Structures are given as structure tokens and as C-alpha cells.
Amino acid sequence: MQATQVLKKPWGLKWRSSVWFVTLVVGLGVTTDLLVYSIIIPVLPFQLEHLGYKGISGLVGWLLFAYSAGLVISTLPIAIFSEHYNARKYPLLFGQFFLAASQVMLMEVPTYWLMVIARVIQGISSSVVWVVGLALLCDTAPEATVGKQLGLAMTGLSIGFLVGPPVGGALYNAFGFRGPFIFSIIVTAVDFVGRLLVIERKDAWPHGIDPAAVSEKPQAHTEAINEDVKDSKIPDNSSPSPFQEAVAAVTPTEHSEPVPVPETRLPLLKVVTTLLRSPRAMVTILITLIQGLVYSATEPSLPLHLQDVWHLAASKVGLIYMAIVIPSLISSPLAGWWSDRGGTEWVMMACFILSIPWWIVLIVQKSLALFIVAIAIQSFFTSGILSPVTAELAAVSRAHVGVGYAHVYGAFNLCYGIGSGLGPVVGGQIYDHVKRGWLAICLLAVGLFLLGSALTISFTGDRPLLSRIVTRYREGRLFKFRHRLANTMGCQVSASRTGNPNST
């Protein structure tokens, strides 16, 4: 009996494995992660007071740190597991169990140290979304549109943070401490159903469905990938990627035999050394750290600055946070779309350079309206960095045989977690201990973004901008030299023919 007679096609195979559905599920996962993270921020202080604790601000800070700690310590094991077993769907499902468990614990535990454990577990579930979820999306999306799909998924970051705190506060006032957690558990359950429905690309392939080639003719797609394999600079002692070998062997049709996909996996040590030797990879990871640190450095100090300078109450501070979050709903998909068409280096460079003047404007304390406009425009460009960074990491993975998407997004998650963990600490300490703390924080952001601009020019993209500038400069000088030489030689020939040596 042939293998095709044994395989049974899952219902809804085409749409369950499609790029749009996987993007929707990953975006929902990011939204759920940020919503669950932020929905309890306005209610935790009241619960701690209810339990009889003192020093509430410091205790809440450690709960936020516990989340980052869980995210950082779990990133590497999750990335290694996902790549070693080529598994995306099941880690995503288990991540939701961890997330639901953390919500139940936070809702019911009577002591602070159990709350800390619950936040660590929540950080672990967040790692699954940011490592495995982004890897699943890159597995599914065509290379030409991966930036746009990542940008669309990244809008979940802004949506979750925009919805979480106000909904949490409203539910707490209406139903008490359990209200926000019940809502977040319901959202987690919806997210779980979406993850359960997803069919990975490797599971759709034996049935003749390739979501990454959905907009292309099968034969043209096969020829294009074969041409890429032929032209790619793969060392003699290495082999093409598993999917390239499968495509070279057979074109997917509804009646194709299942294709055994050979696995190419590098040991963890070789993955690390490969990334360390790649300036493009290391710069992208460093930019991730910079973006995470800058983005989170204002979290503890912005409310205090608004209160000190303009005497704003908490409700009005919340409205200003909307001015920060809403622009990122536009910039993330726009930056991803532009990355696919113009290149990640141009988008990252534009976002870095165009955000710097607005960080300087934020120093001005004369007009609240100017401050709100400046922080909205700054947020638009600052949040736009994340989509091209994730697209650049996908390109790094494709450029190195044996380095999987989960590997590079594990490094991304690790560095972003470190940056977002250090940011509030650094920003809070600067604001408390420096005479003009807000000025120092803004200048720190300017300095780090100037560094990010220099790194982007020098190392980002298939052909970094600096190398293009140098090449064009050399070509221009060479052209001028040849032009002068040609003119000189022409004059000399003309002089020799006329017998007039002074004609030159």
C-alpha cells in the first residue's frame, strides 16, 4: 500500500496552514502575552495592600522583574527544543497551559513568594510566543513577504498593551481582584484554540500544500528555489537546507507522494559560534538590546515626570500612554511592508535617525501639547524598529545552514528580555539620583540610537549601506580617472597625427 493512501488529509488544511491564518494566530499570541502582562499592573498594588504588605512599589517592581527573569532563563531551552525536534505547534500549546496556570496562581495565592513564582511561569510562556511563534511564522511566510507578516503580528504588542491596563482597572472596579484574571484566562483559551487549529508547513507539505508558495506556480517556485540553491555560496562540506532538498526532488501537487525531509541541525555550540562570527547577526542582536532598553527606560520615570512638571493625575497620564501606543499600531506593519520592498537596512536607519530629534524635543518643558506630539512621533519611529529587526534575523537564519529560526529568535528574545529588564532599573535610578533625570534619560536614548544608526549603516542587510557608499565612491573615482586617461590618450593620438606636440 502506498503512503499516499495511508495519509488522511486534515479538514480545512489549506486555510489552517495558510500564511494569513498563521499570522493571525501568532499576532493573537503576542496580543495575549502583552494583555496578560499588563492587565494586572493597575490591580497588583491593591491586592498586595489587601494582603497586608508594606513597601508596595518595590514589591510590584520585583514582580515585574520576575516575569523578565522567567523569560530570559527559559529562552535558550525552548529555542533548542524547538529546533532539535523541528516542533512549533506543541510548544505553543504547552505554553498556553503555563500561561493559564500562572493566571490561576496569581488569582488565588495568599502569599507574595507564590506570586513571584507565578510571574516566572508567565515569563516562560511568553518565551514560547516570542521564540516559537515567530519561528512558525517565518517557516510559513514566503521570503518576499516575511517582513510584512512579522509587522502585522507585531501590532499585537501595541494592542495588548493598549487594552490591558484600562480593562484590568474596569474589571477590578466591577468584579474585584478575580475579574481581570478571569478575563485573561478566557482570552488565553481563545488563543489556545487558534494554536490548536494551526497546521505547520512541514505537515501540510505531504498533502501537496505549500503555504509559502501559495501565490506562485509550482513549477516556477521549484525552478526559483533550485536556482537559489545553485547560486548560493554553500561550502562543499555542507548541504542545502532540508526544504530545498525536498523541493528539488518533487514539485508539490495534490497527488504527490509524501517527501521524507532530511534534517540539518547544528549542535548548540556550533550555532552560537556561527552567530558570533557573523557581524550581521551580532549587530542585529545588539540593536535588539538597545531597542528594548530604550523602549522600557521611560516606564518608571514618565508618570513621575508628567506629575512633577505638569501636575497630571493618574487618569491623564493614562491618556498620554495612549499617544505612545496608538502610533505603533501603524508603524509596525508599515515598517514590515517597507522592509520587504526596500530592505531592512533602510527602514532601521530611517527609524533611528528620525526618532532622535523627537527625543531631544521631549526635553523641552514649556508645552504639554508639544510634549504629547513629540512622544507620539518618537513612539512611531522607535516602535518601527522591531519589525525590520525580526525580518533581519529571519534573513540571518536563511543565510547560515543549520541555524534555525528558533535559534535566532531565541537570541532576540534573550536580548530583548535583558534590555527590557534593565531599562526600568536604569531609567528609575537615573531619574532618582541625577539632578535633571529626565534630561539624562532622553540623552541616553539619543546616544544609544546614534550607536544603533552607525551599526545599521555598517552591517545591516545583504549589502550594508556603508559598503554601497564606499563602492560608489571608488567607482566614481575610477570613472573620473578613466575619463581623464581617455581624454589624455585621445589628445596624444591627435597630436601625433597632426605633428603638433603642443596640441596636448
UniProtKB/TrEMBL annotation:
Its main location: membrane. Residues 210-243 are annotated as: Disordered. Keywords: Membrane, Transmembrane, Transmembrane helix, Transport. SUPFAM superfamilies: MFS general substrate transporter. The keyword Membrane applies. It is a multi-pass membrane protein. InterPro entries: MFS (IPR011701), MFS_dom (IPR020846), MFS_trans_sf (IPR036259), MFS_Vesicular_Transporter (IPR050930), Tet-R_TetA/multi-R_MdtG-like (IPR001958). PROSITE patterns: MFS (PS50850). The chain crosses the membrane at residues 20-44, 56-78, 90-106, 112-138, 150-175, 181-198, 318-339, 346-364, 370-396, 408-431, 437-459. The keyword Phosphoprotein does not apply. It is found in: Membrane. Residues 22-464 form the Major facilitator superfamily (MFS) profile domain. Coiled coil: none annotated. Belongs to the major facilitator superfamily. Vesicular transporter family. PANTHER family: GH10249P. This is Major facilitator superfamily (MFS) profile domain-containing protein.
